[in-house]
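Collaborator request, handled under Task 6.
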Amino acid sequence: MTALNRVDDTLEGLAEGDAKQFLHLFLVTVLLFLPVILIMRLLPRRIRPWDPGSGEKKSVIGEAKAAANAFLPFAFMG
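C-alpha cells returned to the collaborator:
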C-alpha cells in the first residue's frame, strides 16, 4: 500500500510515473479547494457550511491542502 509520508511529504512505494501523476492530481485538487476555502473565510463562522473545527489555526493554503488530503483518497476507491 502506498502512503504519503507526513513528515517530509514524500511518496513512498510508487513508481516515478505514478508519483508524478499523484502529485499532479494533488495539485489540481488543492487548486480546486483554494477558492472554496477563500469563500468560506469570508463567511461568518456561524454560517460556514464546513468548518474543520479542530481548533488548529491554519493558513488558507494549509486548509486547502488538508481538504485535498481528506478528499483525494476517495478518488482511488472502487
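The cover message to the collaborator said: "Residues 3-75 form one domain. The chain has one domain: 3-75. Please let us know whether this matches your experimental observations."
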